[in-house]
Design the sequence.
């Protein structure tokens, strides 16, 4: 345990990763916790755990990430792991609209079992892939996120885009979220993120959006 | 009476008279001055006196106040009140005195000065005027010429008249003077006397008052002497104590700690301890320290702590009887100990080793005392709603089956309505490894035997894990007494009755369970004929029983006379395990009255798949798969011959009996084997060093595993292939068993001969539930190692998930079988 310090100062935050099979949850996790990417990672069975300790506002935070199986038949029967989670990354694949369609279902599952105060971030993964293969425009997802009070980011576990930001936001979001106005925070964060990260491709994406329609 | 001015002289109006008058007049003027001064002084004195009285009154009120404040000290209060009353009285006397002074001196003398002296002055003026008139008349008379007869006559007349008048007035004046002279004496004396009498009265009243008070004062004086003596003595004692404590303190450098068992205030032990925050995992509040120093005490059979004196104490342990206390050495902090109750544990840290020992001893003593004394009170206790239990227990969505229901369910089992050892009605305690119910006294004796003989739990106060409750429902007093009291009658030993001496019970219980004196070691298993299979037994039961006999029981494959006996007896055993009333109790245990009704009325096979029997059915399936996938026929035959040999000798050796019974999940037979001395970790060298526990895994029963574990089976004993119970359960996809073994501390890092640990196997089999359980346990383990998360069985999520699985395994096993069916090919 490299990050081991005086335990009295360390906070533990549980974050769950959910979303359809194959959207890259396990790689997001490995990128964040071990800075690794596995091109042919196998489907997750049950749950996997990983932890990473980071410093936030001068406090040590031990992030404990629960990576869950996307395939129904590989999901554990219990839903208890939602209970302790302070945040959730709901991941879809921007090149698979079907995975984005499932977001509703995942959100319902989450709210059925998780604490009501859980902070949820909608994460469109695989944003490194060419715009031509994109099936979910960020505006659409952003709007959905705003409507449902979710944070929103597009990430790439492959080239590391926004992976740190996504996890750190969800880990921090918990505190700022609870202390300040719960409505504004996610919007601001998502605005910021989209402005910073998608300034350039936003025009392209609007085109793809039209094309899709 | 002395005359100041002579009347005769007055008529003569001689110079002597005039001199006398002058004397008197001067004297009176002087007197007036003196009296005026005296009155003024008197007024001053009265005013001062009144001020004194006011001040005195205030002082007295101060005393009254002090008396009221000292209401707790009777002596002080009563004496002060009495004194202040007396002083009040004295103030009243004083007031009277000054009133008197005012009246006697001020008023009286003032009147004298103002009236009598004024009268005198008026008289004097008159006299002086008439005197002058007379002089003038004399002068005129002298001046009259002889010739003027008329004038002479007139002057003579005037002179005569004036002289007459003068005489009259001067006589009056002299009278006045003389009266005044005498009156002033009397007036002065009178007022002084009355003033003095006022004083006399004052002092007399005061004397009376204090004479009356005197005995009390004397009494108080005596008391005071005693007090002084006592105080001196106390002071000496205190000094002595002070010095001894100082010495002690210097030598030990620690606070004094004593366990006071007979404390009248109910506080057996108290002192400061560090308490580890129980929500260590989720301490969002950054400022909150994880270890807090609190004032703990053991009182009324509870362990409580408080922050401030005014705070209501927080209850850490509601009932010490349900607890154990142990040292904790495997953590960073020193002097730690843990109080473990069924629902949670609390990590406490003392300031030193000595204090820790003292606390541990105190907790243990209280546990023992609570057992001795509390007795039937327990029943009252469990009726009352639980008090805020430390507020630390995690939110339990489905509270473990607790209290009344556990009691009700266990009581349905034959024999369980009376204490297994003394027959006392309504036993509220249980021995979980024996599967019996006990009265409080016998439970105490059981506890004293040690946990390797008997593990005692409360049916009403403890929280019951579902598998434990199931275990209780599989055995019962009747079954166990059939084993442990088999030879009782033959030996002519009388069972202790209710009302027996504790020693008598103790001796019996020791003979029964420790020496196993009444166990019939040479008799054939009576369990086979324990209960005739009833005629209204449902079809499914027969079906399953015969199913069992045909497919899973090795002996049927090699028919012989003796094995046939074994089969039939085995079948009877299976039957007996599900005899109707037990079934009922089993079902009532699951509290599914509607289901029970449907079973009774419907009698269809599907409904029967509830609970216990469900487990049995699934176990049949898995045992099939086991034999089809794992063992070849040869092995089977060899196995069966083992049992056959023993059964041929009319009696199986206890080890093999336990081994076999574990597989066919015959708990009574297992209990019997254990009573006959079976080694719970017996190794079957003829079958790859398998153990009863591994056989229980193969048999697919959760309760059987729990029974073996409760009786000391090692959860990590492995067979020749390096596979322990956890391996086997994982291979077979028995999620409930995996959950149980992990809860009971199974090592999941052990690899089998292929180098595979259970997780690898589970991942290969894609059994999401088992993978989840294994990974979760692994994570928890790592967390405990890295963070020294002592004192907690795991974080909340971990506990939640394991609780979830335990419940499913016991109550809805079909939910956990979803990975079993496709992965275990059927024959």
Sequence:
């Amino acid at each position: 345990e490299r990050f081991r310090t005086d335990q009295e100062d360390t906070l533990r935050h549980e974050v769950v990763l959910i979303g359809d099979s194959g959207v890259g949850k396990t790689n997001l996790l490995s990128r964040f916790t071990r800075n690794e990417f596995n091109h042919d990672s196998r489907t997750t069975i049950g749950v996997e755990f990983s932890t990473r300790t980071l410093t936030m506002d001068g406090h040590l935070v031990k992030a404990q990430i629960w990576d869950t199986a996307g395939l129904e038949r590989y999901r554990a029967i219990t839903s208890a792991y939602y209970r302790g989670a302070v945040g959730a990354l709901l991941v879809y694949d921007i090149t698979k609209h079907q995975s984005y369609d499932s977001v509703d279902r995942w959100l319902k599952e989450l709210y059925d079992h998780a604490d009501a105060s859980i902070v949820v971030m909608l994460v469109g993964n695989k944003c490194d892939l060419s715009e031509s293969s994109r099936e979910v425009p960020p505006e659409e997802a952003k709007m959905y996120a705003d409507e449902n009070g979710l944070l929103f980011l597009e990430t790439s576990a492959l080239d590391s885009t926004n992976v740190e930001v996504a996890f750190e936001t969800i880990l921090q979001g918990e505190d700022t979220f609870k202390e300040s106005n719960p409505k504004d925070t996610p919007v601001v964060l998502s605005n910021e993120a989209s402005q910073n990260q998608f300034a350039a491709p936003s025009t392209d994406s609007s085109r793809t959006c039209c094309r899709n329609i | 009476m002395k005359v100041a001015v002579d009347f005769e002289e007055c008529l003569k109006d001689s110079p002597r008279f005039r001199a006398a008058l002058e004397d008197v007049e001067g004297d009176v003027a002087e007197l007036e001055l003196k009296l005026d001064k005296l009155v003024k002084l008197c007024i001053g004195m009265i005013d001062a006196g009144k001020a004194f009285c006011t001040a005195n009154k205030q002082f007295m009120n101060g005393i009254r106040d002090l008396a009221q404040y000292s209401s707790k000290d009777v002596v002080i209060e009563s004496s002060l009140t009495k004194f202040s009353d007396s002083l009040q009285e004295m103030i009243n006397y004083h007031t009277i005195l000054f009133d008197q002074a005012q009246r006697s001196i001020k008023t009286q003398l003032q009147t004298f000065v103002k009236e009598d002296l004024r009268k005198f002055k008026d008289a004097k003026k008159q006299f002086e005027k008439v005197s002058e008139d007379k002089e003038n008349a004399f002068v005129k008379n002298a001046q009259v010429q002889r010739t003027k007869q008329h004038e002479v006559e007139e002057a003579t007349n005037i002179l005569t008249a004036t002289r007459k008048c003068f005489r009259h007035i001067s006589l009056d004046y002299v009278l006045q003077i003389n009266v005044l002279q005498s009156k002033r004496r009397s007036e002065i004396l009178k007022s002084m006397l009355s003033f003095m009498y006022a004083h006399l009265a004052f002092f007399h009243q005061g004397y009376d008052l204090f004479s009356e008070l005197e005995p009390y004062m004397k009494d108080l004086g005596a008391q005071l002497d005693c007090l002084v003596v006592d105080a001196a003595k106390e002071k000496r004692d205190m000094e002595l104590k002070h010095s001894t404590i100082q010495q002690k303190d210097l030598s030990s450098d620690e606070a004094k700690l004593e366990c006071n068992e007979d404390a009248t205030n109910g506080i057996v032990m108290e002192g400061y301890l560090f308490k580890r925050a129980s929500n260590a995992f989720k301490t969002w509040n950054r400022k909150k320290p994880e270890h807090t120093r609190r004032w703990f005490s053991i009182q009324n059979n509870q362990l409580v702590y408080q922050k401030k004196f005014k705070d209501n104490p927080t209850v850490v342990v509601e009932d010490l009887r349900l607890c154990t206390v142990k040292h904790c050495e495997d953590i960073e902090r020193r002097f730690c100990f843990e109080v473990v109750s069924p629902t949670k544990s609390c990590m406490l840290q003392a300031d030193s080793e000595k204090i820790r020992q003292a606390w541990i001893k105190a907790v243990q003593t209280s546990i023992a005392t609570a057992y001795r004394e509390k007795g039937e009170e327990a029943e009252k206790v469990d009726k009352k709603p639980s008090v805020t239990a430390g507020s630390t227990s995690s939110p339990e969505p489905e509270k473990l089956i607790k209290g009344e229901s556990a009691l009700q369910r266990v009581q349905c089992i034959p024999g369980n309505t009376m204490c297994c050892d003394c027959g006392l009605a309504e036993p509220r305690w249980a021995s979980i490894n024996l599967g019996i119910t006990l009265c409080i006294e016998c439970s105490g004796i059981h506890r004293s035997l040690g946990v390797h003989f008997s593990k005692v739990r409360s049916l009403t106060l403890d929280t019951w894990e579902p598998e434990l409750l199931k275990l209780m429902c599989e055995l019962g007093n009747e079954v166990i007494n059939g084993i442990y009291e088999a030879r009782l009658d033959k030996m002519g030993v009388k069972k202790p009755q209710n009302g027996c001496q504790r020693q008598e019970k103790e001796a019996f219980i020791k003979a029964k369970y420790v020496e196993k004196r009444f166990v019939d070691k040479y008799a054939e298993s009576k369990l086979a004929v324990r209960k005739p299979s009833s005629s209204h037994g449902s079809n499914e039961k027969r079906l399953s029983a015969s199913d069992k006999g045909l497919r899973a029981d090795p002996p049927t494959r090699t028919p012989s006379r003796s094995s046939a006996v074994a089969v039939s007896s085995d079948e009877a055993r299976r039957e007996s395990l599900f005899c109707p009333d037990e079934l009922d109790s089993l079902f009532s245990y699951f509290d599914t009255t509607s289901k029970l009704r449907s079973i009774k009325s419907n009698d269809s096979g599907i409904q029967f798949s509830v609970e216990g029997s469900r487990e049995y059915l699934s176990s049949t399936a898995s045992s099939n798969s086991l034999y089809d996938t794992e063992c070849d026929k040869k092995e089977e035959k060899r196995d069966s011959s083992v049992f056959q040999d023993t059964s041929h000798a009319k009696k199986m050796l206890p080890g093999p009996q336990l081994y076999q019974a574990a597989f066919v999940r015959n708990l009574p037979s297992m209990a019997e084997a254990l009573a006959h001395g079976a080694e719970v970790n017996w190794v079957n060298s003829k079958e790859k060093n398998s153990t009863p526990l591994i056989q229980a895994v193969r048999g697919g029963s959760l309760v059987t595993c729990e029974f073996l574990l409760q009786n000391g089976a090692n959860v990590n004993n492995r067979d020749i292939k390096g596979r322990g119970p956890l391996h086997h359960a994982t291979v077979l996809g028995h999620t409930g068993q995996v959950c149980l073994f992990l809860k009971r501390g199974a090592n999941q890092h052990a690899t089998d001969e292929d180098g595979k640990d259970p997780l690898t196997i589970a991942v290969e089999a894609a059994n999401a539930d088992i993978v989840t359980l294994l990974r979760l346990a692994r994570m928890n383990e790592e967390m405990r190692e890295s963070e020294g998360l002592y004192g907690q069985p795991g974080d909340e999520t971990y506990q939640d998930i394991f609780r979830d699985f335990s419940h499913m395994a016991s109550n809805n096993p079909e939910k956990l079988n979803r990975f079993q069916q496709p992965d275990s090919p059927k024959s």
